[in-house]
Amino acid sequence: QVQLIESGGGTVPAGGSLKVSCVVSGPPYSSNSYAMSWFRQAPGLEREFVAAISRSGSDTDYADSVKGRFTISKDIAENTLSLQMSSLAPEDTAVYYCAARRYYDSTVYFTQTSEATYWGQGTQVTVSS
To answer: Is 60 exceeded by the pLDDT of residue 6?
Structure first.
């Protein structure tokens, strides 16, 4: 059974930076087997797309609201997905979830919640004003 385990959430002042990570566990698969994405959900709102990366790590995509501020990356050797967030604003406050899906094509990624096969439990990110 594949598990996605997030970590790194916390409280940070506006303008600050934070990195959240997601470890893929459940051999024999590694993070290289999956396209992976970050989504977030603020109280009372729908879960929304944040960033995506292809199975190979060669292709990425970002929501317009985070472009230029957030960076998604994969460490295949460590089976870890990361999201480096900078210039954080109060509107970035949400529970951040990582998600994964297997694709044969190593360049494909996904941006819709309905496309995810596996989800992590989420990690809270709070940006104080």
So the answer is: yes
